[in-house]
């Protein structure tokens, strides 16, 4: 059997002092900590951090700035080109460009309330099944490109999470607070031939996550 692993990577921390839901808006750059997260994953994949070098032979990334800046140090460390694929984009969201919340956020305005009528689809943005479908199409592309090896796909939290839910045959609507998909994390899909045999999850930059130092010192 031929084993192939596809790593779905969430981008690093973004500089977003206004707390805007940036969605598909481009031009949002990684913060200094976000760049450090990307470097950390590069070290993890090349074996400079915590183990053997991973057998990564293909890199794909969302076209958004934050994803491109995340994949850049990985590409440099591995000496690989990056294929940009729009199917790795963030989910469409009608709250894009707004702050999201009840206090000073967009939810305090009644004109936005109709967007919340169906959380199962969801009514405020791209359907969950559509997100999972386009992501899985790139997974298949990456499997063909890296068959017998590994590939990294840099994308965004929600598309990665609903893809995992779909592969685990779980319902796609969910509580966003319960997503296991932290910044710069790797959700790893391992295939034997064409059969998915394992889904793994790692956080190479766990100590860099917001609040991590406070938890460590508690």
UniProtKB/TrEMBL annotation:
SUPFAM superfamilies: Phosphoglycerate mutase-like (SSF53254)
InterPro entries per UniProt: His_Pase_superF_clade-1, His_PPase_superfam, PGM_Phosphatase
Cellular component GO terms held in the UniProt record: cytoplasm
Leader sequence residues: none
GO molecular function, one term: phosphatase activity
Pfam families: His_Phos_1
Gene3D superfamilies attached to this UniProt entry: Phosphoglycerate mutase-like
Protein name: Phosphoglycerate mutase
Organism this protein belongs to: Cellulomonas pakistanensis
Lineage: Bacteria, Bacillati, Actinomycetota, Actinomycetes, Micrococcales
